[in-house]
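Lecture 7 notes. Example A: sequence first, then its C-alpha cells.
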Amino acid sequence: MKRLLTLAFAFVFMTGVAFAQDNEASLSQDGDENEAVINQVGSAHDATIEQGFSDTQQSYAYALIEQAGADNEALIRQRAFVSSQTNVHAILQDGEDNRARVRVFNGENLGGIAQIGTGNDGHLVQSSTGHMGGIAQFGEDNTAYARQSTGDNIVGILQFGEENDASARQKGGTDNLALIGQFGSENMAGDGSSSEPFGIYQDGSYNTAMIGQGASGNAASISQLGDGNTASITQNGGFAGDGFGALDVPVE
C-alpha cells in the first residue's frame, strides 16, 4: 500500500511538472470594469487575454500577463466601447526567446511591454485617442515596434544590450511625442518591423521626436510630416549610419 501511494504521488508530481512546463492560458471578458491577470512560471508557455470583443464591448479594462521562463508568448487584445474610455495593459517577460504582442482599439490607452532576457520580440499597437505606451528590453537580439494613431500620443522605446532594433510610428492627431533610447552596440532605430524601417515616423502637427544612441555601430532615422515638428538625434560612438547629429525642423 505504501509503495502504491509513493507511485501515485510520483505520478501526480511528474504530471504537474509537465503542465508547469507546457501550459496555455486564455481569458476572454466583456462588459464593464474587467480585470484579468495571467501569471506563468516555467517554459514554453502561451498566454492570451481578450477584452471587449463581443457585441457588448466594454467601458474599462485592465490586463496583465507575467511570464518567467523560456520560449513564452503573450498576447493582449482590448477594445473599448467609445474613445473616451480607458484600457490598461502590460506584459512582463523574464527569460529568453519571448514574444509579446499588444493590440488595443478605441479608448484612451495606457500600457507597455517589459522584456528581460535574450531574443525577445515586442510589438505595441494603440489605436483611437490619447495613448501612452512604451517598450523596454534588457538583453540582446531584441526587436521592438510601437504604433499609435489619432490623438495626443506618447510612445517610448528603451533598449539595453546589443544588436537591438527599434521602431516607432505615430500618425494623425496633435501634440505627439516619440522617444527611442538605445544603449549597446550594433543597434538600429528603425526596422524593428512592421515593414518600413521607421525609426520614428510622425504624421501630424506639433510633434516631437528624439533618438539617443550610445556605443558604436548605431544607425538612426527620423521622418516627420506636418507643422511645428522638432527632431533631435544624438549618437555617441563610431560607425554611425543614417544619423545626422542634431536635426531641427523649424515651425512652418
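Example B, a different protein, same format:
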Amino acid sequence: MKFRSVLMAATCATLLLAPAYGFGDQVKTDYNHQTNFGTYHTYSWGKVKVTNQLDSDRIKRAVDEKLQKDGWQEVTTGGQVTVMATDNIHTEQEAETYYSGMGDGMGMGMGWGGGWGWGGWGMDGGLGGAEAMSTVTNTREAHLIVDLFDTKSKQLLWRGVSRGELTDKPEVNRKRLFGDINNMFKDFPPKSKK
C-alpha cells in the first residue's frame, strides 16, 4: 500500500514537471564567433518561405520585435543584415512495440548423466509464449529556420532553428511559434569575443 502511494506521487510529479523539462519545442542557435554584432544597426527582410502564408507575417512581426528591442532598425532595402526564414512541415512516423507477459507454460526434456559415484536421469524443460503489439504513430513535425546574413559579404552571421510537433489547434501552434522565436533571440545579440 505504501509503495502504491509513493508510485502515485512520483507519477503525478513527473506529469506536472514534464512540460518544463523536454516536452516543448527544441530551439538551437549558432553564430559566427568572429562577428562583432555591435557593428550592425539596420536590417532588411529577404525571402520568407513558409508553408502557411499567415505565418510569414507572424514570423516577421516576432523577429522585428526582438531585433528592434536590441536597437536595430528595419529598412526597406539595403540593411546591413538580411533576415531570411524558412520552414519545413512534414509527417514523422514513430513505431513502438509493447510486450505482454514473460512467457509461461510447460514442456519436457530428457537426459541422463553419470559421474563419480552417481548417475541418473530426469525430465525438465519449458515452453512459453508472450504477445507483442506494435503501433505506428504519425505526427506532424515543423522546423523553422531564421538566418541573419551580412548583406554585403553574403556570409551567414547567425542561425536560429526550432523543431516541434504541430497540433490540430491553430492557437497553440501560433503561441509555440512566438515562443520559439523568443527563445531563439533571448541571448541575441551574441557577445563578441575581444
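Note on Example B: Helices lie at 2-17, 53-69, 170-184. The longest strand covers residues 81-100.
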